[in-house]
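cache lookup: miss for this entity combination. No prior model stored, computing from scratch. Input as submitted by user K.M.:
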Amino acid sequence: MTTWIDASCILIVFSSLAILATYRIVGIIRIFTLQAFVLSLVPLFLHADALSGRDIMLSLGTVILKAALVPYILLWAIRHISMRSEVKPVIGLGASIICGALLIAGAFWISLSLTLPGKLISDLVLPCSLATILLGFMIMVTRTRAVTQVLGYLVIENGIFLFALSLFEAMPFLIEMGILLDIFVAVFIMAIVLNHINEEFERTSDTLIRSKTGERL
Amino acid sequence: MLTMIFSIFLHWLIVLLLSPFFVGVIAKVKAFFAGKTGPSAFQPYFDLVKLLHKKCIYSPSTTWVFRLAPVVSLGATLVLSLMVPLGLFKAPVQFPGDILLVVYLLALVRFFMISASLDTGSSFEGIGASREAFFSCLSELALFMNFITLVLLAHSISLSQMIGADIPMSWRLLGPALLLVVASLFIVFLAENCRIPVDDPDTHLELTMIHEVMILDHSGVDLAYILYASAIKLFVFAGILVPIIIPVQTGHPTKDILIFLTGMTGLAILVGVIESSMARLRLNRIRHLLLIAFALAFFGLVVTLWRA
Amino acid sequence: MLFLVVAIPFVGALAALFPVRKMFRLWLLCAVSFLHVLIVASFWTHLPPSEFSGYLVLDSIGLLLLSVTSFLFLSVSIFMVGYFKHEQRRNRIFVTCLLFLLSMMTLVSVSYHMGLLWVAVETTTLLSAPLISFHRNRESLEATWKYLLVCSVGIALALMGTFFLAIAAHDLNTLFLPMILSGASSLSVNWLKLSIIFLLVGYGCKMGLAPMHSWKPEAYGQSTGMVAVLMAGGLTQCSFLALIRVSQICFKTGLSDFLTSIFLFMGVLSLVVPAVFILSEKNIKRSFAYSSIEHMGILILGLGLGPVGIFGALFHMINNALAKVVMFLTAGSVAQKYGLSRGNDVQGVIHVYPVTGVFLIIALLSGTGMFPFATFHSELMILNAAVISKHYALVGIAVICLGLMFIGIAKNVLGLVYGDPTKPVLAKKEDFFMNVVIAAAAVALVVFGLWMPTPLSKVIHEAVVLIGA
């Protein structure tokens, strides 16, 4: 089972890198769907020898919420936009990919000094989740389109969720479902605000607008 | 000594006999996807024989570099094929560090091809030369990253050991990292052998050619040498890739040869499928694709170091 | 009882979703918040028992926050009765979100499980976002987006911090606060430190501490006064409660030096940054937002200065909420009277609306901590604590920054109050409901500034002991 968990972790990091390397919004949403689907398989892999109803519920919840509903909501929010790719990213694609690779290395380097207590099924979960979180931050920071920023936030949440899966026992099931639901509601509200933004502006434009005092986000 | 020479010649015989076949397989698969019957899989052999009979035409603006390039390319490729194990047949020449020699011989071939195309004095070939030079920077970077990972995995710097018996154990222990290496090597494979999505081997439009445009001025025997060299390069790269993907060593000679040949043919069919289903990328996207290959290889290296 | 106090606003929110008349919804809001205040007032006589096997517990710290929340919602609901008389927009989503927000903020005050605390804080973030863009124009949508993204990322970091806390408490295998506190010696120090940093940054984002404050001027400047009150007086203090819980764990584990140095640093930064920015700010709501950042800095500073400072910080929590009621509700009523698009060129309010003009002056004085308002005393207590612990440079910086804040806000408020009167959009009538709320808050501030009631000081003392510095 360790190989399957390892493969899922690496696939999740790779999909985050792929999101970083894609400009087209629909493409990013598809890659995210793949990432969410792989993420939902991880609880099953982690407890393959003793599957409980809780693992199956968590998997199912993740699939339905993250892999099905969230992409649907995001595609609904951008249904009227004609321009479906990134216009002016902060750093170009090539530089993003290299930075992404360096961030992955950085995440592994950080994990060297963090030792998780308890028995570990796979030691790749911690560095891969940290790498996903860092890559999600990078997506959020370097993109100017609102939808891509939401997707960056979702990648961060995926990384945190992957990290949480190795900590099953301390977190009660209810809280985990609460976290999942919260993330879903967050995306829901973001999509609605996005929709309002689209109606107000003609298309989702640059959100790095200078405020009145000259501050930039 | 005698066995050494015998094994070298046997190795060359296999390489020379088998490599054009796989080029033909790719062309056949593409024709199948296009709904055509297409040329037979052995057509490259006939093409090579035909070219060997023809006379070389040299432009008056070329110098000895132009005439030297095809010879160097075929010669260097044959030499480097000696260091690549092909399934059951162990590489006749193996020593620690032969992987570097392989990469540098490839670079030598590339250097002479670029020089020859610049030598013609035509800007047409100049475009191809500059593109080739640029993309090879990135693809060699990715290639080196992959080889560093394989070196760390196999604990030796000899190509035969790297893709030898250690790999089956490594798949179990380090499957995902090897997955990344395979993915990255596959992209490099497509790039080095001028396949779609990096380069279109069939096109003759100025804006889209990379490799094809460099050899535009060669003819006759020279062209035969160059085509042969690229076929051997394809064969050699596939020979490096297939043992990593299918690391089976049953010990039974016939079975091993069969598995190896099936793997090579499968890889050729896969390349044909990819060529038929994708278009060639925009030129600045190729740069990103190769950077992704580098990032994958880098990630694989990081995971290998983490597990070590 | 605890479940009731969370559930009643929740049920009220569901009821507000039905298509009823606008005014009916507002009276529902008033009724629910009045009921909420009654229940919370009963808690002051004796604390209710814990429910749901320890998930919901009310201690003194939670009681303070709960009372603040209750009072804020009551004042907002009464204010809204007056505000919506002149407002054309439908208020269904607004009132529903407000009631859900009340329910979730109550949940923050009573949750004793760190995971549940996180869920509640995240939900308050999500629920307050649609409130900011009530007027649906470009600037408010942009402000909502900034707020939503910055706070969501902050909350994600806080989630990571919570998970690190769970790892630190791996031997205890729980995230219940009392169990963590009792088993504090078995927590792994490195993971705890990491978790503290993430929790501080995450919840600090929500609080609006510098350098995570960039969403505040936009969000408070663009939202209506009522929403700004709830966010400045309620939501930020909810995240302050989360930070108090974190510091409880730290003080028990013996990491007080580590924590206090971080708190002092963040407090000073949150004092200096708004002082720099406010001098060039011309919009009144945005300057009040900078004042909110500064007050958050004072709160954090107090938390890091020992028992005296913590007492001052908890007292300041209450006074800050009251002062924000005065400040933002007055700004909101001015904005409604003069039309929202006028922005910065309004002048001479006191000649047209004398009561509102006086309220603006009171807002200036209470918001910047002038005698006899209670904010003066709480800020003095905290500075006193700094002198006691010999952080003299800190006192100097704090005083300078507070002075700069006063200059900045006074410039805007006085420019608004005096001068040639500009013509208002609405009729020249002051509204009773709006004014009575602001007056009540101002009176409460003066009362607390001159005399601290014994029950209040008792509860704050208990809270300080619970925090255990």
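stored under new cache key. Confidence is low (pLDDT under 50) at residues 203-217 of chain A.
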